[in-house]
Amino acid sequence: MDHEATVYLGNPPWSTTEDDLARLLGQLADVVGARGIQGRRTGCTRGYGFVELAAVEQATRVCATLHACQFNGRRLEVRPVQARAGRW
Question: In the chain, how many domains are there?
Answer without folding.
Answer: 1
